[in-house]
Amino acid sequence: MSKATKKVRDKWRAKEWYDVYAPAYFGEKKVASIPCSDPVKVIGRVVETTLYDITNDFSHQSQKLYFLAANVKGTRADTILKGHEYSTDYLRSLVRRGSTRIDAIFNVTSKDQYVTRASVVAFTRDRVNANQQHLIRSIMRKTIEEKAVTLAYDQLCHEMVLGIFGSEIYNLAKKVSPLRHVGVRKSKLLIIPEGVMAKPGETSVQPKAVEA
Predict the structure, then answer these.
(1) Does residue 173 sit within a domain?
(2) In total, how many domains does the chain have?
(3) Radius of gyration, CA atoms only, the chain
(4) Which of 120, 130, 136, 194 has minimal CB crowding within 10 Å?
């Protein structure tokens, strides 16, 4: 056996498998297992899955979820939602000739001081003019920003991913023009409150309460 082969085998033997779990607001379901030689190196890793893998609902297969490892206890890695997005095929399937696509992007802060970028999309049944598009974007902004400040991050994630925001915007914006679909097509976590992520050299921390 060559020295190079032996070194590769020894390197893999030194690694341990860590089970990655979705956060409580997504059922704490195991979403992946990753090999790593040091638990500290697990923190900050991002795991991709689908909402279907969490809910077993076939209609949710078009939503991708990205979980960020925040803490490690033993061989268990706990995560927070780093973001989500519609699959490219699903987003393409929503496009129809003779309709208008309306996009808007907002940075919102949750009650517990997580900052998230939410990309909202609406598809109308018929073409709409610039004034109608402006009104629909205003409804998107008002709904997202007013609700976000009343919700903790776990609640905010639920409302974005499970379509609750989309339904609320839809019910208000359909008065401006008939709509086919409204939803948060993508989200991205921008700022995490201090104390949530384990610091370098640590594997577990207690989340720090954010003052009101």
Answers:
(1) yes
(2) 2
(3) 21
(4) 130
